[in-house]
Amino acid sequence: QDQSRLLFQTGYGYTEKQLELLKAISFHLDIPESRGVFVASFKEQRPFLLNDIDELKDHLSAKSYEFALKMGARSFICCPIVYEGNSLGIMAVDNVETKKPLLERDKNLLLGVANQIAISIHNAKLLDDRLRQFESILQVLVASTDARDPITGGHSLKVTEYVVGICREMGLSTEYTDMFRVAALMHDYGKIGVEGEILKKP
Q1: Per the count of CB atoms within 10 A, which of 84, 114, 161, 179 is most buried?
Q2: What does the DSSP 8-state code read for residue 72?
Q3: pTM of the full predicted structure?
Q4: Which ranges of the chain have pLDDT less than 70?
């Protein structure tokens, strides 16, 4: 998120050993000397297709070259994931099985996939932002209920805690549990419209 490093998020088709290597490494974006292909692809927003890892030896840091050798990659394609001019990450495909060269059409196909990934990441972020906004509104509504009737302040949160606990004990799905959580938080909101002399009578 802070655009300082590239970190492995997910992968497919790798061995356990290769996945361990991927999870353990990161590529610095905030160090000017960083000159790896992944960093260049991210910063320059351009794809790379390499059919011979040794061609890169003079253009990679020792760390990046050693990493490529450990991964057993014979060749690879690296594409930037870009949304509206902003780099979000990179997608790399390693060829560890065959000596058959990768082609320009392979690169173009992956660029198309990278564009779809960029849109998906952006949409997921929008959804996260909306959920955070919804949670924030809920908290304000609960606080306004408590402010209306301080005697029962905190009651909605306690009810919610019990409701979520019961849902879990019953083995209800996350979707149902969340629906009940919201209902529990809001169950007393009607107090907001009740006249004070009724609500606060002895």
Answers
A1: 114
A2: T
A3: 0.71
A4: 56, 58-61
